[in-house]
Amino acid sequence: MTLTRAQKSKLPKANLLNVRWWSTRGIVAKFRLANAMAIHIGRLEVSWRMPWLERSARALHPELFHEDRAMSPCERELVDALKAFLNVAAHCEIKSGVCGCGEDMGSHSDPYSAGHSPTDMADQVVSKAIADAEAAIAKAEGRS
Ligand SMILES: [Zn+2]
Predict the structure, then answer these.
(1) How far is ligand 1, taken at its centre, from the CA of residue 105, in Å?
(2) In the chain, which residues have pLDDT < 50?
(3) pLDDT score recorded for residue 94
(4) How much is the pLDDT for 66?
(5) How far is it, in rounded angstroms, from Cα 70 to Cα 4?
(6) CB–CB of 33/47 below 8 Å?
(7) From the CA of 122, how far away is ligand 1's center (Å)?
């Protein structure tokens, strides 16, 4: 995938030409920067604008690349379904009625004699499903 004209126009531009004098000990080297090339000769640095490296542009300015990740109708449907599930999970109690130990939640043994507080089996599963759904939505919408 290459950078579109619109993306290129939004990326910050390096100075066309930049000359700098370093006070620290100089080196002799040539660097390709994200959007420039630089040569160091001793304490002198000369850099000039270059086209953005796509990987660097995507890493440094991810906000510019969301729009090129359009969702297919199927992905849109899945995201909407996951959002509906999250809405249900946020407003309804999701319980299995059974403790992790296998006892019925309604008639669970006294925590003191059972050795644990009754915990519905669904609690952990639902928490994980919510986290997975949120992560999948964020990924599909280009936020992660
Ligand atoms: Zn139990």
Answers:
(1) 7
(2) 68
(3) 92
(4) 67
(5) 14
(6) yes
(7) 13
